[in-house]
């Protein structure tokens, strides 16, 4: 009875889902440490979900193939929809502000984790582990090289979450106090009666960011201050 309920391929399916969970979780944990919008749980859901779709494609229609001779098996059909459909999640992590785009790396990691899940679902464990190592090395170490090349060039974007009663000129005064040149200011309304203030400032490696954030946080009606990276 139990064997009929679980099926012939239960242990293969269990192993592949667990491997997908671990590999996707490792990549998601790295994103979580850097406070990105798509972190640990999102990457696990994407990796395990895509692995499940691959397993469905491989094992979900076996009884139909055995029962009907005219059914043709195409294991690539469902995975192809996973790869194309995962784009909506990646798009949700991208923030476009003026000429600055944030979240592209996280969007790419989500798309890659979906591919990892499919590869694990197909039983290609070595390829999945090798890809995970390459992704982690890219996310952790190459980011430092990018900062070296971009130092002094790329502008910084500060996101300030406030209540509607905030006086924006009081926030701007803090930047003036630190002699920071502001290139752009954008205000947008979000849920729960809050506002997002995006301030693009010129890059200054010598800037004391802790003191700056502390000063901004003490402005009336300011709820949160974050530097978008």
Estimate the global geometry from the Cα principal axes: elongated
Structural class: alpha+beta
Overall number of domains: 2
H/I helix tally: 10
Secondary structure: number of strands: 6
Helix and strand sequence: HHHHHHEEHHEHEEHE
Main sheet? 4 strands, antiparallel
Quick overview:
By secondary structure, the protein is an alpha+beta fold. Helix content is 58%, strand content 16%.
Overview of this structure, please?
With 229 residues, the protein is α+β, with helices and mostly antiparallel strands. It has two domains: 8-150, no CATH class; 156-228, 2-Layer Sandwich (Alpha-Beta Plaits), CATH 3.30.70.260. The chain is 58% helix and 16% strand. It contains ten helices and six strands. The protein has helices at residues 2-6, 10-33, 40-59, 62-67, 77-85, 87-92, 104-121, 125-150, 168-177, 209-217, and strands at 95-97, 100-102, 156-162, 182-190, 194-201, 222-228. It has a four-stranded antiparallel beta sheet, covered by helices on one side. Strand 1 and strand 2 (100-102) form a beta hairpin. Helix 2 runs antiparallel to helix 3, helix 3 (40-59) packs parallel to helix 7 (104-121) and helix 7 (104-121) runs antiparallel to helix 8 (125-150). The longest helix has 26 residues, at 125-150. The radius of gyration is 23 Å and the shape is elongated. The model has no long low-confidence stretch (mean pLDDT 80).
């Amino acid at each position: 009875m139990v064997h009929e309920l679980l099926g012939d391929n239960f242990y293969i399916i269990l192993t592949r889902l667990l491997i997908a969970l671990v590999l996707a979780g490792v990549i998601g944990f790295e994103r979580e440490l850097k406070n990105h919008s798509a972190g640990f749980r999102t990457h696990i859901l994407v990796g395990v979900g895509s692995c499940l779709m691959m397993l469905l494609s491989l094992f979900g229609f076996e009884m139909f193939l055995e029962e009907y001779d005219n059914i043709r098996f195409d294991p690539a059909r469902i995975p192809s929809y996973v790869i194309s459909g995962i784009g909506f999640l990646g798009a949700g992590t991208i923030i476009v502000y003026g000429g600055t785009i944030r979240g592209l790396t996280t969007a790419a990691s989500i798309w890659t984790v979906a591919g990892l899940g499919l590869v694990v679902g197909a039983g290609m464990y070595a390829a999945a582990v090798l890809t995970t190592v390459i992704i982690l090395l890219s996310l952790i170490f190459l980011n430092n090289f990018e900062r070296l090349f971009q130092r002094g060039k790329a502008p910084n974007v500060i996101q300030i979450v406030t209540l509607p009663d905030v006086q924006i000129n009081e926030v701007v005064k803090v930047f003036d106090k630190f002699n920071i040149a502001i290139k752009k200011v954008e205000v947008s309304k979000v849920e729960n009666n809050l506002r997002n203030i995006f301030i693009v400032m010129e890059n200054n490696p010598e800037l004391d960011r802790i003191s700056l954030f502390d000063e901004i946080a003490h402005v009336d009606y300011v709820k949160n201050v974050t530097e978008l990276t």
